[in-house]
Amino acid sequence: MDYLLNEEQLMVRDLARKIAQEKIKPVRARYDETEEFPWEIVKVLAKSDIYALFIPEEYGGLGYGTLELSIVVEELSRVCGGIALCLAASALGTFPLLLFGSENQKKKYLPSLARGEKITGFALTESAAGSDAAAIQTTAVKDKDSYILNGTKQWITNGGEAQIYTVIALTDKKKGARGASAFIVEKDTPGFTFGKKENKLGIRGSTTRELVFNDCRIPRENILGKEGMGFIVAMKTFDVSRPGVAAQALGIAQGALDAAVDYARSRYQFEKPISSFQAIGHMLADMAIQIEAARSLIYATCRMIDSGKKNCGKEAAACKVFASDTAMKVTVDALQVFGGYGYMKDYPIEKMMRDAKITQIYEGTNQIQRNIIAQNLIREAARKKV
């Protein structure tokens, strides 16, 4: 479909596609095997100004929006959903600064992020606080002009690699979720260390680690917004970041379809290419329909966000649900088209299927997303009756 992208958006898409094909595709299998963090790709993206895309011009960025970011994440994920996270996860950690950072905070941190000299991480999840994010136990106790952090964050993307983190911690336990606050924490801060590096099913070209805070003292000026705004910071961040997860899922699905179509045309059985069999053709057609529908929803939602429309949480959740469910179905079906070959690591399909699964889980499971959508529908209906 023609999404009426303008000339600059097409240039951004083509640049990302070129990087994916020329720089990421040759190394994706190696990173999947070794679980190294793809610093060489970070440097390529930085040199190409990709990290500057969504950062305002006054802080050294290019001033584009979530649509351009999602287009790039889609193109990178089309080749490797894991390596694409070196950009997408950094965007997640940067959005709180963009949305809630003070002018001094933005001037201090955003220029180096725009240049790709530093990347970020976002730390909300804990061992007992996944879908129930309000159950976090990490604390931040005020001490004169500082806060002292104690606790552990789990499954943090870019953990140990990023130099800057947005961390959600309780400043007032008695208030529960309303007692949470958001902080900027730099990597080399005393008392801030990293736990084990996780051995994951998929996105193995992305690092996932525990963050450990043991009497970690951070300056008072590192709070984002005000005390008690931590969950507002987190939820508003997800409203603009979830289309990025959807774009990652979309890219994985599109890459799987590309591979399945090529394979179906070249694989012969019964003296015919398997693409000539209706059973295979219908599978490919269904994949294409689902992918195009996901892309339409993602691009439309990004345009809503970039237009300045507030309260896009329902649409962002819908993007994430639909695209990630699509990615999982498409990769499973694409592997079926490959048959036994698809199960082998000599072909990229099994990796795409492994990478797709996480998109249904992180930044809120798809069950949580459906709760968000339903709650919004009910609130909207109630408002109409008033």
TrEMBL record:
PANTHER family: ACYL-COA DEHYDROGENASE, ISOVALERYL-COA DEHYDROGENASE, MITOCHONDRIAL-RELATED. Residues 6-117 form the Acyl-CoA dehydrogenase/oxidase N-terminal domain. It comes from the Bacteria. Its cofactor is FAD. GO terms for molecular function: acyl-CoA dehydrogenase activity; flavin adenine dinucleotide binding. PROSITE patterns: ACYL_COA_DH_1, ACYL_COA_DH_2. Keywords: FAD, Flavoprotein, Oxidoreductase. Belongs to the acyl-CoA dehydrogenase family. This is Acyl-CoA dehydrogenase. Residues 228-377 form the Acyl-CoA dehydrogenase/oxidase C-terminal domain. Residues 121-216 form the Acyl-CoA oxidase/dehydrogenase middle domain. It comes from bacterium (Candidatus Ratteibacteria) CG01_land_8_20_14_3_00_40_19.
